[in-house]
Fold each of these.
Amino acid sequence: MLKWCSRSIFLQVVLGLMLGIACGLSFPEVSLQLKPLGDGFIKLIKMLIGLIVFCVVVSGISGAGDLKKVGRIGLKSVIYFEILTTIALVIGLVFAFTSGIGSGANIHLDQLASAEAGNLAERGQHMHSTAAFLMDLIPTSVVGAFADNNILQVLLFSVLFGSALNLVGEAASGISRLINELSHVIFRIMGMIVRLAPLGVFGAIAFTTSKYGLESLQHLGGLVALFYLTCTGFVLLILGTVMRLSGLRILPFIKYLREELTIVLGTASSDAVLPQIMRKLEHLGIGNSTVGLVIPTGYSFNLDGFSIYLTLAIVFIANATGTPLAMTDLLTILLVSLITSKGAHGIPGSALVILAATLTAIPAIPVVGLVLVLAVDWFMGIGRALTNLIGNCVATVAIGRWEGDIDMERANNVLAGKQGFGFAQRKTSTAHQQEF
């Protein structure tokens, strides 16, 4: 058992999760000091995200051969993202409106602390402007995009750089090989960092349990429960249908990604598993050019869990503060959310900032009401990250099938457990797959 646990990141993360809860309950004062363990782990991961996106996207485009294929994958991805994001927003809106979540709370606006809400609103003020969003895609400088770790800006430069390499061809083959070799080094570093996941999960869970206590789950419990119920329904029904249409099943697929999902469960961040997810999708039989384009783009544009959260939280705030919503208000929420939900990944404290941005675009709902969800935002953040990650992985499968860039026989064998992702298998796999 100990030998098995020493080899399985999944079991180590679960152990870290259990020990974190126990430590948070038994030694609350000590556990409050453990927050840097979780924060440090996330910072180590984020340190490499920009380079990972750059290397993967550039390698994918430069190695695709035909730029028409790149454009085709990009167009299909955008179409898919818009459809699924809209469905997620509508589902969140319908569940929130029909359930009447927050109704009867009778919270008066003068009871709410407005200082933090005002700060968040100021940070999100510009987010509902389409022109501002498009301008934010363009970095002031290439170095600045990487220094700020702005994934959308890094993605834009990576697409341009990869396209240029593709057009130059053989004359730039040395640069292409250099970037490919650099990606091996970066992924090896990431593999080393991921080994610290159990420690990061332990610190994050111990701190959260000691600060909020288990009873904190009961605070605004209706909103949290409805959010998780909605996310579960979306994953099983909507994403399950997408997987069925793609020729695969959702439950074996989730089981295949269980180690990565467990890390996200403990850290409330999908950044921590970006490279492993990409390698696993390639191992599933999806072409590296498809994986390299869809996953990084999806991290910013295909936020299914965040979309559900956004509409649920807005209706909850309106109901809790006694703000009546007309059908025009609901349509405004939907249309504004379609814009503000894009690019949330690259903004510090994105959930609350973009929630504030959306509220500022809907005058009928008081922005100060967003302080109502502060107490449970961390718990909802776990559901957002899990749903976002599963949604992006399903998107990659769907685009791969749509593009004909997936080996279905291999995919079925992998999900059936006939072709594992263990150490023995990796030794005989490609150089990219050897990194994990």
Amino acid sequence: MAKTIAISDEVYRLLKKAKLPNESFSSVIKRNFKRGRISDLAGRRTIGRKDWQEAMQHLATSEFATSKKLKKGL
């Protein structure tokens, strides 16, 4: 069941910035609650060090897998 809440323009901009393509605002809030408190979102301009390292690891793994597949095709 959906509920309507009022948020400030600043909070709306923060949620919009955190939103992934095709993701609902509810999903953004839920995703960030899993990491910690929703108040941790306030003022964030970048992702945290741990998230950055995790993203870089996924990227490196994907690049390695892609490179391996391309080499097999040659």
